[in-house]
Amino acid sequence: MKKNKGFTLLEVMIALTIFALIATTLSQSASITVDNQIHIERKLLATWIAENQIIELRSIAYADVKNKKTDIKFGDREWLVTINAKPEKKFGGLPIPLEIKKVDVSVALKPDIDSPLQTLSAYIAND
Asked: What CATH number does the domain containing 49 carry?
């Protein structure tokens, strides 16, 4: 009697099902990784922009530190930078003998300007 060598149809179907499940899981994992990398890249660029804005604010006259919104292009993207400056009279509950402004710099990726990717705060004193 001749013995057949090879896999049965049932064995092939089970192997294909297992392969399909593994491929689907790997595909979803790769997609999540790419999405996370894109978010981290955007957040890093927004942080750099906010830090640069704070450095620029520290280099101008105290009276020129005001609320404003600015559109900039950085990293081949369009960004909206919002600066909120308000005078502070107390710091940690204690009165301050200097003129100090608390500056919040928010950076959002256009067109999604309602949810900033990064917000940094700094204190600027009138020297």
From this structure: 3.30.1300.30
What length does the chain have? Answer: 127
Cβ-based neighbour number of residue 116 at 10 Å: 19
The boundaries of the domain holding residue 82 are: 9-125
DSSP of the chain, one letter per residue?
Answer: -PPP-S--HHHHHHHHHHHHHHHHHHHHHHHHHHHHHHHHHHHHHHHHHHHHHHHHHHTS-GGG---EEEEEEETTEEEEEEEEEEEEEEETTEEEEEEEEEEEEEEEETT-TTS-SEEEEEEEE--
- Provide the whole-model pTM: 0.77
Digit-coded pLDDT (tens) for 17-36: 999 999 999 999 999 999 99
Q: What is each CA distance from 84 to 30, 42, 69, 87, in whole angstroms?
A: 39, 22, 9, 10
For residue 30 the two structure tokens come to: 């790769």
